[in-house]
Design a protein that fits this description.
alpha/beta, TIM Barrel, eight-stranded parallel beta barrel, 49% helix, globular
Length: 435
């Protein structure tokens, strides 16, 4: 039986090969995955032209996934370095990569990714249109914006951030209720400026049905972009953010009617006490569509450490409903991340995702921690390194400060509680002060 998208197949009662692989990875019955895809609570981004894809499910009852942003810019145009970041991300377990290239021959890099990278791949067509057409913003036509979406779909991109929630109406509300940091979304600011310069409606909103047809043809998952995400704690939960979210909820229903898979993009900066409520609002307005959050960053004062502010917010967001965490690196707000920054950002996001999976009571989530605690109880250092979320760093830290005795570390020495309780329970002498 022919089907157009994963959602179309699921609604016809078909369990696709992608669903089977997701079910195996998640240790969930494939029929349950099919039902979740059918109702829109899980997406499996899997463009028909991305032949080397390892499919992952994103959404309700599944492991929290992480996305890694990378790509070239005018100041950093080295494809080899970007591919090194890609490989590092895949090696460290990132399920998805977004190519946010904003300079150079972007299609060469994008096609290299879809030909060689097994991770789920995403893009933001608005960025690429500005680069591809290389002309004044106001001269880009409505047709040209849509053509870029089609190009990315043909190239094999699995999901696309489409900024269609900021139409003339939501832009009017934004202008009537100006914010502390205005619009901080790069794509959102570009399409808002285009609307202001031309006086035209946002083509991604006005021609949403055409975008859905492209998505159906290639099975592209829509990631409905949050142009009005808060860029500071001061703007969190304001009129602009919520009015756009309402619009995204309406567009979600339209996409589902056409069997197009949808994710909703969520807040950037948000104080801790608002995160749970924001997740609940999103689930209600968007009927349980998977929520994809940038952070949220829980404070504005930590440049150089925003991977930490993001991990704190991400853990809380995922605990209460977010399914997909966009990593943030230490370079956020400062510069394009290096390979090392990418690694730091991935580790922070993976910690947040795993902590949330434990808090949600995801079956099997605590097994990893149980094994680590058992290795610690047994003072089995090699096993601890093997189980560590970053084995290289754990091993390096111990090697840089060698203890006097193998069954201790240089923090506690022979006062080590684990060592001494083990000895006492075995009926042995505890020799804390003896040589």
């Amino acid at each position: 039986m022919e089907y157009t998208t994963q959602m179309d197949a699921a609604r016809r009662g078909i369990i696709t090969e992608q669903m089977k692989k997701v079910a195996e990875y998640e240790n969930i019955d494939a029929e349950e995955i099919r039902k979740l895809v059918a109702c829109g609570h899980v997406v499996i981004p899997a463009n028909k032209n991305h032949k080397c894809l390892k499919p992952y499910g994103i959404g309700s009852r599944l492991k929290t996934k992480i996305n890694v942003n990378l790509g070239t810019s005018r100041d950093c145009l080295d494809l080899d370095v970007e591919m090194e970041k890609v490989q590092a991300a895949v090696d460290m377990g990132a399920e998805a990569i977004m190519d946010l290239s904003s300079y150079g021959d972007t299609q060469v890099f994008r096609r290299k990714l879809t030909n060689e990278c097994s991770a789920v791949l995403g893009t933001v067509p608005i960025y690429d249109a500005v680069v591809y057409y290389n002309k004044a913003l106001k001269k880009i036509t409505s047709d040209e914006w849509i053509d870029i979406v089609r190009m990315h779909a043909e190239d094999g991109v699995d999901f696309m951030t489409i900024h269609c929630g900021i139409n003339r109406e939501t832009a009017r509300r934004f202008k009537q209720n100006l914010r502390h940091t205005n619009i901080v979304s790069r794509g959102g600011s570009i399409i808002f400026a285009w609307m202001e310069l031309t006086g035209n409606e946002n083509p991604f909103y006005e021609r949403f049905d055409e975008i859905l047809e492209i998505c159906k043809q290639y099975d592209v998952t829509l990631s409905l972009g949050d142009a009005c995400r808060p860029g500071s704690i001061e703007d969190a939960g304001d009129i602009s953010q919520i009015s756009e979210l309402v619009m995204l909820g309406e567009l979600t229903m339209r996409a589902w009617r056409e069997n197009v898979q949808v994710m909703i993009e969520g807040p950037g900066h948000m104080p801790l006490d608002q995160i749970r409520a924001n997740m609940e609002i999103q689930k209600t307005i968007c009927k349980g569509a998977p929520f994809y959050v940038l952070g949220p960053l829980v404070t504005d004062v930590a440049p150089g450490y925003d991977h930490i502010t993001s991990a704190i917010g991400g853990a809380i967001a995922a605990t209460y409903g977010a399914s997909f965490l966009c990593y943030v690196t230490p370079a956020e707000h400062l510069r394009l991340p290096t390979v090392e920054d990418v690694k730091e950002g991935i580790i922070a996001s993976k910690i947040a995702a795993h902590a949330a999976d434990i808090a949600k009571g995801l079956p099997g989530a605590k097994d990893w921690d149980y094994q680590m605690s058992e290795a610690r109880r047994n003072l089995d250092w090699e096993k601890q390194f093997e189980l560590a979320i970053d084995p290289e760093k754990a091993r390096r830290y111990r090697s840089e400060s060698t203890p006097e005795r193998e069954d201790t570390c240089t923090m506690c020495g022979k006062m080590c509680a684990v060592r001494n309780i083990n000895k006492i329970l075995r009926g042995e002498n505890v020799d804390i002060m003896e040589d």
